[in-house]
Automatic annotation (TrEMBL):
It is found in: Cell membrane. It is a multi-pass membrane protein. It comes from the Bacteria. Its main location: membrane. It holds the Pfam family Na_H_Exchanger. This is Na+/H+ antiporter. The keyword Cell membrane applies. Residues 424-455 form a coiled coil. InterPro entries: Cation/H_exchanger_CPA1 (IPR018422), Cation/H_exchanger_CPA1_bac (IPR004705), Cation/H_exchanger_TM (IPR006153). It comes from Thermomonospora curvata (strain ATCC 19995 / DSM 43183 / JCM 3096 / KCTC 9072 / NBRC 15933 / NCIMB 10081 / Henssen B9). Gene3D superfamilies: 6.10.140.1330. Na(+)/H(+) antiporter that extrudes sodium in exchange for external protons. One of its GO terms (molecular function) is sodium:proton antiporter activity. Keywords: Antiport, Cell membrane, Coiled coil, Ion transport, Membrane, Sodium, Sodium transport, Transmembrane, Transmembrane helix, Transport.
Amino acid sequence: MNATHALWLLAVPVVAVGVATAARRAGMPSPLALVAAGLVMALPPGIPEFALDPEFVLFAFLPPLLFSAAWESSLPNLRDSGRAIGYLAVGLVLFTTVTVGYAVYLIVPAMPLPAAFVLGAIVAPPDAVAAVSVAKRLGLPRRVVTVLVGESLFNDATALTAFRVAVAATAGEGFTLLSGGWEFLYAALGGAAIGLAAGPPLQWLRTRLRDPVAENAVAVLAPFAAYLVAEAVHASGVIAVVVSGLYLGHRFARSPASTRVIGQAFWKVTIFILESVVFLLIGLQLPAVMAGLSERSPFSLLWWAATVFGVVVATRFLWVFATARAPHLPLLRRRAAGGRPRRPMWREMTVVSWAGMRGVVSLAAAFAIPTNTAGGAPFPERHLILFLTFTTVLGTLLLQGMTFPALIRRLGVNDEDERRTDAVSEAEAQHIAANAALRRLEALVEQERDRLDERVVRQLRDLVEHRRLSAWERLGGAAGPDGAEVPTGAYRRLRREMLAAEREAFVRMRDERRIDDEVLERVLTELDLEELALSRR
């Protein structure tokens, strides 16, 4: 690799992080800005081609992205919404594969039906990264976010399995509907089994290391190990990664504080970089996608692209509304008074239907299409499939992504009731936990009465009492009914000023060579952790 290519290679993550940072500051979804930046970068002549290696994307990007999403997901919430997630992650993917496949078969001359199903499987799985980031920022109800996250965790496995089956049928490698069904079941069940089998030993190892850095190193390697083992036995590496991530993430709450702080910071930075690079790469694929289409009519290409995009969007609307209203398909259903299920609001169904942005998994699958069939002939309409995949991904990201925040605001779908309930639940939990802490303190005081300083005991009691009251005070916001600042708000404001003064004093002493940088690092870490605790919403 020469220096010029190395510089271009470095430019990709640098530009990606820069664009993503600017988008976050501007309050716009960063995936949309990154795709647009990639398109702009790909247009000038002389730009080297950044070919998307499907094997590299599926191994280097997909496992950590899925593992992090699973790690941060709520296992109980996913379990409660399991049926709704299953209907989207499995049912909708297969329904989209068939619908898009038949539509393309009917409108594109000389397109074989198996090849059309290849395209259907490629564009079937939504990538909820952009949708979920907007949903969380704008405060969508938790059940909606849970369904979107759960769908994005599991739908890739369904789509990639359907893709392999359709490619085998197109390439003449032998295929029957029964064999395709068995392959899907084996991939799903095998991946889940490997993910479950990997979880307990990895958790055991992490708890025995007693080293925050080493514990998080195990978590970093876990998704790649689960993915490789599953793929080696032809099971679903995607499901293996998701299941292992759910298992380990559910138990992460019992890890030491230092392990949690380091792990959360690492994953936030890593996922930010990976997502930024992935969406920039989507835009950079334009030259590779346009190759081989010079003989096609621009009008025909535009008509086919618009049709595929329209079918993809319409299929999701049809499936979501049909399954949500069927009595035995409880998509997004809530509980009414008396525990009876209540129909979902059409506004929430509309939001879920519009949150169907496609992403890098679709492009990686498209580039993974073999160039030749088993008989040596060129794979039917490979360049056209690449083009239609790219236009569908681009169309959903730009059109749906750009309008998604406005749609949420227009429909008034929010989680205000949930936030109020969460605040009350937190206050009650803080009260119970504070009582448990006080009981433990009194037991220790009784055992060590002769050795304990009464001032220490009084300080600990005051601290517990402050934490018990602060959660209730936060229910009323930063100000009381008369507009005066509540005690917890004043405490946080004054303590932040004190911490800033302490930090400035420590840095000044370092600059004056009165303390070493190693000492400064230790004391600043303590101040940082306390400030993070004060900043918790």
